[in-house]
């Protein structure tokens, strides 16, 4: 009886070992298909990749259209991505916070968009693929009257088209 139990356990262990799929890269070939890794992150060359991996906006200081080092770093990534995917053109949107007149903020938004456009072109993005528009304070991302909110509204957005 003891022999039958040990034989049954050994047979089950043998069958279980035969039914497992070897790990990918182990050099063994099995009867089943190798597991496929799920893609991580957005698809290469997609708008989602541009927004999440490259960055689609740069921020500006109060009453400024100068590009700081962080903005320049983001724009270098954008330029490299745009050179890799020439099927895209972009529109640069200039935005301002709610302080100041409508006219002043439209002019400031235009200067911000122009600063981004000029920098991208200096990095090799053809001017024929870049246009700009100013929205001033008309399209805020945040509407609370606080510096934290205003700082997010002072931006240059690169929109793929």
Any key phrases for this structure?
cell cycle, alpha+beta, globular, single chain, OmpA-like_sf, 161 residues
Descriptive notes:
By secondary structure, the chain is of the alpha+beta class. It has a single domain (47-160), classed as 60s Ribosomal Protein L30, Chain: A (2-Layer Sandwich), CATH 3.30.1330.60. The protein is built from 5 helices and 4 strands; from the N terminus they run ααβαβαβαβ. It has helices spanning 2-18, 47-54, 69-84, 102-122, 147-153, and strands spanning 57-59, 90-95, 130-136, 155-160. A 4-stranded mixed beta sheet has the order 1-4-2-3. β2 (90-95), α4 and β3 (130-136) form a beta-alpha-beta unit. α3 packs across α4. Mean pLDDT is 86; it is low at 8-29.
- Principal-axes shape call: globular
CATH classification class: Alpha Beta
CATH superfamily: OmpA-like domain
Number of strands: 4
Kindly state the mean pLDDT as a whole number?
Answer: 86
CATH architecture: 2-Layer Sandwich
Helix-and-strand structural type = alpha+beta
Uncertain residue ranges: 8-29
The major beta sheet can be summarized as: 4 strands, mixed
Number of domains: 1
- Helical fraction equals 40-55%
CATH topology: 60s Ribosomal Protein L30, Chain: A
- Helix and strand pattern: HHEHEHEHE
By DSSP (H or I, 4+ residues per run), the number of helices equals: 5
- Report the β-strand fraction as a percent range: 5-15%
Biggest sheet strand order reads 1-4-2-3
Rounded to the nearest angstrom, the radius of gyration is: 28 Å
N-to-C span: 77 Å
């Amino acid at each position: 009886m003891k022999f039958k139990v040990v034989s049954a356990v050994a047979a089950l262990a043998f069958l279980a070992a035969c039914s497992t799929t070897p790990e990918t890269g182990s050099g063994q070939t099995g009867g089943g298909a190798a597991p496929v890794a799920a893609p991580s992150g957005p698809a290469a060359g997609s708008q989602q990749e541009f927004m999440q991996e490259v960055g689609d906006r740069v921020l500006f200081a109060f009453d400024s259209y100068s590009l700081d080092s962080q903005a320049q770093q983001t724009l270098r990534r954008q330029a490299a991505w745009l050179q890799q995917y020439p099927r895209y053109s972009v529109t640069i949107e200039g935005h301002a916070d709610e302080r100041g007149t409508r006219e002043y903020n439209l002019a400031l938004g235009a200067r911000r968009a122009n600063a981004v456009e000029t920098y991208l072109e200096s990095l090799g993005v053809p001017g024929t693929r870049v246009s700009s528009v100013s929205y001033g304070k008309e399209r805020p991302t945040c509407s609370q009257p606080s510096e934290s909110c205003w700082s997010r509204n002072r931006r240059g957005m690169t929109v793929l088209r």
